[in-house]
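To the wet lab folks,

You asked to see what we're planning to order before we commit. Fair enough. Below is the target structure as tokens, and below that is the sequence we designed to fit it. If anything looks off to you, flag it before the synthesis order goes out.
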């Protein structure tokens, strides 16, 4: 879904009407198609203004009629207790991500287990995540209805290991990373189930989750959202994982 130009007559400016128009537009689109990204092309100097409504820059800048623009994207999906949205580059989002990924208990089963040590690494992470956004695919922030940040849910293409795949399209992976303060409350299951349902609704029929063989807690989440344990595989990430599929 896409929003075109947002404009008010000169005589109506300075009264907050453009903001009112944006709020009405995004509320209507969220209600019509929950979880589906809303796209727009913003004049570059207005990117922060659109950011007030949850839009984030989603691609390279470009010029239209000689005016610098940036593509922007907004996603919102609600559950009984949670809101799933885009990660932004505001200070509070960046501070949360650094705090989460600097913890060894969070990073223990992710990649090589290396923790973040420099806040600048968050910007590199957000750049990588921005490149994963494609339709309903992407990495979503998970927070409570009152705005307390909890973690991330990922829905993205998963790379084959070297020599695996045999020319087949990449599978779509679902995953979750949560702050230790959010563990044990069912948030990962609730958020992942919502994203899985969204993917099914929009025609993604095969979805996988992979875990480190020692990460039984994530395996339990995968099974609670309806994925079936297939066993160990080396088809992904050039390492041994436990595969869950459905």
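Sequence we intend to order:
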């Amino acid at each position: 879904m896409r929003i075109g130009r947002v404009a008010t007559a000169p005589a109506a400016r300075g009264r907050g009407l453009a903001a009112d128009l944006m709020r009405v537009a995004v509320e209507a689109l969220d209600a019509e198609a929950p979880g589906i990204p809303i796209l727009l092309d913003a004049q570059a100097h207005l990117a922060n203004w659109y950011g007030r409504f949850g839009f984030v820059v989603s691609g390279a800048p470009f010029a239209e009629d000689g005016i610098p623009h940036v593509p922007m994207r907004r996603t919102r999906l609600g559950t009984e207790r949670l809101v799933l949205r885009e990660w932004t580059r505001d200070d509070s989002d960046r501070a949360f991500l650094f705090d989460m990924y600097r913890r060894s208990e969070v990073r223990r089963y992710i990649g090589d287990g290396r923790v973040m040590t420099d806040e600048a690494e968050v910007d590199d992470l957000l750049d990588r995540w921005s490149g994963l956004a494609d339709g309903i695919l992407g990495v979503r922030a998970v927070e409570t209805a009152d705005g307390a940040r909890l973690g991330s849910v990922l829905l993205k293409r998963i790379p084959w290991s070297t020599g695996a795949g045999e020319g087949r399209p990449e599978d779509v992976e679902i995953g979750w990373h949560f702050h230790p303060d959010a563990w044990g409350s069912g948030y990962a299951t609730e958020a992942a189930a919502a994203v899985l349902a969204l993917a099914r609704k929009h025609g993604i029929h095969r979805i996988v989750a992979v875990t480190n063989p020692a990460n039984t807690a994530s395996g339990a989440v995968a099974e609670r959202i309806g994925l079936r344990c297939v066993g160990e595989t080396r088809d992904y990430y050039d390492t041994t994982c436990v595969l869950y599929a459905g």
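Structural context that might help your review: The radius of gyration is 19 Å. DSSP finds seven helices and twelve strands in the chain.

Thanks,
Computational group
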